[in-house]
Amino acid sequence: QVQLAESGGGLVQPGGSLRLSCVASSSDYDAIGWFRQAPEKAREGLSCIISSDGSTRYADSVKGRFTISRDSAKNTVYLQMNSLKPEDTAVYSCATVDGDCSGPEIWGQGTQVTVSS
Length: 117
Known about the structure:
The protein is mainly β. Helix content is about 0%, strand content about 50%. It has strands at about 5, 10, 20-25, 30-35, 45-50, 55-60, 65-70, 75-80, 90-95, 110-115. A 6-stranded mixed beta sheet has the order 2-10-9-4-5-6, with no helix packed on it.
């Protein structure tokens, strides 16, 4: 089965940007979604990109600030995060999801994003 590995997290000041990467071991998935979970908060779905046509979806909380994209040749999905806020601090993970961007199945290990001055 496909394996996922995230990278690109780190410490950034409020208003800054980060780009997360999710590298897949193969292209055997319908879609990839990005999720995050902050301490003592429920996991939140952020964005999703569909393999077949590259269509994308966003949660309202990140719409206009985050952009999901892909490099199919590299089996990599990116999450560009701009105008970061302290409340964006969380562990960010990618996962395979179905064509409706739901039902996360295979997860990466996650990458920590901390937004702080």
